[in-house]
Amino acid sequence: MPGFWINMGPQHPMTHGLWNMKVKIDGETITDAKPEIGYLHRGYEKIMEVREFQKNVVLTDRLCYVSSLTWSHAYCLAAEKMMGLEVPVRGQWIRVLALEIQRVASHLMWLAAYGPDLGLLTALLWALRERELWLDLLQLLTGARMNQNYPRIGGVRNDLPENFDGMCRRVITHFEGKLDEYEKLLHDSKIFHLRTLGVGRISAEDAINWGVTGPNLRACGVNVDLRRLDPYETYDELDFEAQVWKGSSAGDSYARFVCRFNEMRTSCDIILQVLEKMPTSGAYRTKEPRRAEGDGFARTEDSRGEALFYILGDGDDRPYRVKIRSPIFCSMAATPLMLRGNKLADLVAILGSIDVCVGEMDK
Amino acid sequence: MSGAAAPVLSGRPVEGAAEEVLAQVRSRFGGKVVRAGIPRPRVVQVMIDRADLVDVCRHLKEALGFEQLSCVSAVEWPDRFESVYHMMNYYNGVTVQLHARIPKDDPKVASVCVLWNAANYHEREAWDLMGIVYEGHPNLERILLPADFKFHPLRKDFPQEVDRQYISRRKLKGGK
Question: How far is A177 from A173, CA to CA, in rounded Å?
Fold first, then answer.
């Protein structure tokens, strides 16, 4: 077969980090692709074995700087499962609130990256402008814009600040108006359709078999959202529906875009429900044991898909073994399927739509 | 699931499904199951020997509907290795945690890439970091570490600079 291999990366603006996509092209058409990852490997699983359980929270924050709270939460949840801890109800509600704020902030960062990938700089400026509001909320709640170090094994670090529900409502009212503006900019744009519709398709069967999860899987029309299918914290008391693509041309870049975009609306809705249903007082943290034995795993619906922590303890104050399952690590394995047969110029549009985060991918 | 159409899923967990899965695994592989139980709701834990891995996995995938392989983790214990598989049934929300025991002196186990392509990267990672050979894997190369790296760093005999990084309170008090 004619054609030759070219390297997209490791230094390329589309990579949003440090990794290399080798693509084989025949003229303008991609015939094969091979991701090369590991440039950002920091040996998290090994480092965590020599640190106390609680001290690992700060490490797991740094797995993904865009969505750090969801990662430290997944770690805490797995450690609690291992220790058999029950988090106080109010602590669980605060976690759900923080997670959904973080999810919107993460999706906005994705939108800000995806716009310029398609040559639309306006999306970058708009999305980052609104992301600032959500980061302000996180700062009010946790004291930090990013790398919050907020969840704790057994609960959360601190209670809600004063008038936090009022602030959330103000941000959401403002933000929902802005989402309508984004829709006009992106959904209604003919150029945007041309760049994304029918591009980078993957079938539902392949997506499940290759381990694609999260919005990328729901874009294939598969109704799987771990917040519904395997509820954790207080998600089973909330009333919401997973964003699943229902139209034709499932599994393309456009479907992935729409699922992820609409998830921001769902998250806003969830936050409003949490503010209604959350008990106004009570304990938010319980004391955790210093040492633990046994095993536990937790799978959560991260912004990018299914995050899984598998933690083993041997009775010491540190984990014996930690395994991190990153959703993008698995989605990356499936990218050759999405790329084959597409044009080289669409590569950036396809990889941008799966929302790559190299920090969690390389661990 | 067959054809190109996407499966219709309720997206909600089904009550009592974990008990049913456990009963089915026990009745099919009775003597081969070393240990099995339901440690938490919607979680089935099964331990088997490495020789039965592909049979059990095939049954779980094709008869019991565990179409998604979430994760493959390699664990080193003082007396054995373990390859741990987390798989999920999207129709009833049950997760199976399958442990395959591997002897310490012969760290080899059959690859499950024939069933789930998702195992491809996970098994490469487990080989890279823990040094377990997945036999039958299409491309068992290092994935996270450089190709010329000579160690498997997650093994317990691969040292870390523990003292400089971190000193536990117990150690300060004179414990181990």
Answer: 7
